[in-house]
TrEMBL record:
SMART domains: RAB, RAN, RAS, RHO
InterPro entries: P-loop_NTPase, Rab29/Rab38/Rab32, Small_GTP-bd, Small_GTPase
Molecular function terms, GO-annotated: GTP binding; GTPase activity
UniProt record, GO biological process: endosome to lysosome transport; phagosome-lysosome fusion
Membrane protein topology class: Lipid-anchor
Localization of this protein: Membrane
Gene Ontology CC terms: late endosome; lysosome; membrane; phagocytic vesicle; trans-Golgi network
Protein source organism: Portunus trituberculatus
Record's function text: The small GTPases Rab are key regulators in vesicle trafficking.
Pfam families: Ras (PF00071)
Keywords recorded for this protein, A-Z: GTP-binding, Lipoprotein, Membrane, Nucleotide-binding, Prenylation
The name this protein goes by in its record: Ras-related protein Rab
Length: 228
């Protein structure tokens, strides 16, 4: 008898809390060159796990991260882990559809992966936008910051300029290996997405490549982060 009463109490609590809680499901893209650490960042973020072993992603993988954002809000991030080799494929238009945010990842030890960031960002902006035509919030991740860095990433002021020019919301140095800045970068992106939702801009559109111009659409970079 006592046991049955307790179950009723728990059920009541669950019902009340599910009425009160707002739930959001956001599709987030993770893109960038081969071997930059996209899968490793997601594995660290979702499963608190890191492996040195490299196994290239084929096509796309998925992961779900549930964030208890505040007492009233649960956020589910559907992370689309897109293979580096997909930039040369023609599936990205399908993968990008209805995304509301993105990470572009490069490897701080290989400056050619930074050189390719512009191509990834342009590809993204030509294939998906917010309802008002502006780019979806995108954060640049300078990954493997536990290693010696090569190129522009050594100059934070130039990185800030680059991000402003290219329409990135901000950038972070990250390490999937040492678990540096991944939570912070994600919180930053989610805040941007929530702001867009408040302003009613969340409906995303898939675009025809030939209709699009990237000129004059840069977001302001209001934060760069490095805790390395
Ligand atoms: P594709 O699926 O081919 O596009 O590659 P990816 O971007 O998913 O790269 P992945 O996460 O598979 O990592 C590639 C290699 O880099 C693996 O050997 C990882 O262990 C290593 N790696 C990833 N992140 C880090 C990091 O933060 N620091 C260090 N030192 N190594 C890392
Ligand atoms: Mg991968």
């Amino acid at each position: 008898m006592k046991f049955a009463l307790r179950i009723n109490t728990i059920n009541d609590q669950q019902t009340n809390s599910s009425i009160d809680k707002r739930e959001h499901l956001y599709k987030i893209l993770v893109i960038g060159e081969l071997g930059t650490g996209k899968t490793s960042i997601i594995k660290r973020y979702v499963h608190q796990f890191f492996s040195q072993h490299y196994r290239a992603t084929i096509g796309v993988d998925f992961a779900l991260k549930v964030l208890n954002w505040d007492n009233n809000t649960v956020i589910r991030l559907q992370l689309w882990d897109i293979a580096g080799q997909e930039r040369f494929g023609n599936m990205t238009r399908v993968y990008y559809k209805e995304a509301v945010g993105a990470f572009v990842v490069f490897d701080v030890t290989r400056s050619q992966t930074f050189d390719a960031v512009t191509k990834w960002k342009t590809d993204l902006d030509t294939k998906v936008t917010l309802a008002d035509g502006s780019p979806i919030p995108t954060v640049l991740l300078a990954n493997k910051c536990d290693q010696p860095k090569e190129g522009v990433v050594n100059n934070p002021a130039r990185m800030d300029d680059y991000c402003r020019e290219r329409g990135f919301s901000g950038w972070f140095e990250t390490s999937a290996k040492e678990n540096i800045n991944i939570d912070e970068a994600s919180r930053f992106l989610v805040n941007r997405i929530l702001n867009n939702e408040k302003q009613g801009m969340m409906m995303t559109e898939s675009l025809d490549a030939d209709k699009f111009s990237v000129d004059g659409k840069a977001n302001q970079v209001d934060k760069s982060g490095c805790l390395c």
